[in-house]
Amino acid sequence: MKKKIAIIGSGIAGLTLANLLKSNSNFEFIIYEKEEAFNLKEGFGIQLSVNSVYILNKIGFSKLNKNEKYNPSKLDFYSKNYNKICDLDLTEFNSENEKYTTLKRSILIKFLKEKLLTNSIIFGKKIQEVNQTNEKLEIQFNDGSRDKVDYLIVADGIYSNTKSIIEKKFFKPNYYGAIAIRSQVRAEDISNLNSNNISLIMSTDAHLVLYSVNKQKEINLVCIIRKKLEDNDSIKTILENTIFKESKNLVNLFNGELKSWPIYTSNKPIKSIYKNVLYIGDAFYTFPPTMAQGASQSIEAANEIFQLISDNNADIQNEYFKRRVARTNLINKRSKINYFGFHISNPLLKTFRNFFLKRLVKNKNFIQSYLGEIYK
Ligand SMILES: Cc1cc2nc3c(=O)[nH]c(=O)nc-3n(C[C@H](O)[C@H](O)[C@H](O)COP(=O)(O)OP(=O)(O)OC[C@H]3O[C@@H](n4cnc5c(N)ncnc54)[C@H](O)[C@@H]3O)c2cc1C
Fold it and tell me: Domain-by-domain residue ranges, the chain?
């Protein structure tokens, strides 16, 4: 008999897993999403490193219209006033079919959802209770409906309240002490930068990342600024007190519509009290955004679960947890190092950082170990 899998949440993690499961006729799956529809309007970008592009290619990502994505070849580092420090070659990890890729998040979601049958996703659904009877999980939803499944994969993001319901205790993410500001920038406003590459501008207590999201060179801007949670200043005031104070000529990057939100990260990953419940993506662990690995790790985790379930592994929960925690710890450490380095405020430390950065990006052994371990 086919095994039934319920996936909670139709973000990158949940949709990737569903696409992988589609290829195995031993399973039937259903996605339960709390929203009433997909939000495909936002044009913000996402970076995908080769580790996740490799997995997405298994479900046809290489065939996605080439105009809808972009393959930057370098990461350019700048200090204030567009002073270029050095660059890192991103193609070192590329192969013919797997390349470091940037695109709009909405294009990725559209690609993932188009490959599924419309009845694979049920919108407007939230879990109210989960119970185990024999080997099966019984799910009860807010609207009174029920389902009985073999596996429950929770992919409902950073604020995962499904986790609190299932584990019967309250989980709360931690404020990371920073906010993200996002916008879209016109190519003419970045004439000081090379739009073929990813640009990383390091300011005091803040950094900016700009990259093209498609062949038409629409530019995505994301800016991370240290900020206390209780400080209620407007986005404009925050920018004036931080980035603009140091580099007046960055003002024209912020002419478009600006959106901001606080950055939260997770406490330690947990194993469920039920052996056939698995957490995935941001619901498993949410990283600081300074390694740009959140989406890529969601995709990797989906692939790990798919492999373990397909192989009928005898100890899925422990095997998955062991590998995920090892990956999470590695990436989390690197993300924190990056966060520290990108936000240095002391002028002497900045000089040291720039001095070492110039050497490190050219040191093949260091790059292979620092990034290669993650991109493998
Ligand atoms: C500023 C910033 C920049 C980033 N840039 C990058 C980047 O360049 N590269 C990268 O790899 N990652 C990046 N990330 C991280 C990345 O966006 C996330 O890690 C990734 O989207 C997580 O996917 P997910 O599917 O786990 O969660 P989500 O995308 O959050 O999806 C969760 C889904 O679950 C649904 N849901 C929520 N609650 C319930 C419920 N109770 N019941 C049912 N459904 C529910 C939601 O509506 C949503 O559809 C960035 C993050 C930030 C903050």
Answer: 175-264+347-354
Average pLDDT on 7-31 reads: 97
Q: Is the CB of 11 under 6 A from ligand 1?
A: yes
pLDDT for 109-141, tens place per residue?
Answer: 999 999 999 899 999 999 999 999 988 999 999
Answer whether 138 contacts ligand 1 (Cβ < 6 A). no
Instruction: Report the mean per-residue pLDDT for the chain.
Output: 95
**What is the reported pLDDT for 374?**
94
CA 282 / ligand 1 centre spacing (Å):
6
Ligand 1 midpoint to CA 98 (Å): 23
3-state secondary structure (DSSP) of residue 179? strand
End-to-end CA distance of the chain: 36
Strands (DSSP E) contained in 68-218 are 69-70, 74-79, 83-89, 101-104, 121-122, 127-133, 136-141, 146-149, 151-154, 174-185, 198-203, 206-212
Which residue from 274, 374, 371 is spatially nearest to 75, judged by alpha carbons?
A: 371
Checking if the pLDDT of 189 tops 90, the result is no
As a 3-state breakdown, the chain gives helix, strand, coil percent values, each rounded to 5, of 40, 25, 35
Label residue 352 exposed, middle or buried (CB < 10 Å: 0-12, 13-18, 19+). Answer: exposed
Fold adopted by 175-264+347-354: D-Amino Acid Oxidase; Chain A, domain 2 (3.30.9)
- Say whether pLDDT at 80 is over 90: no
pLDDT digits 0-9 by tens, 216-258: 999 999 999 999 988 889 999 999 999 999 999 999 999 999 9
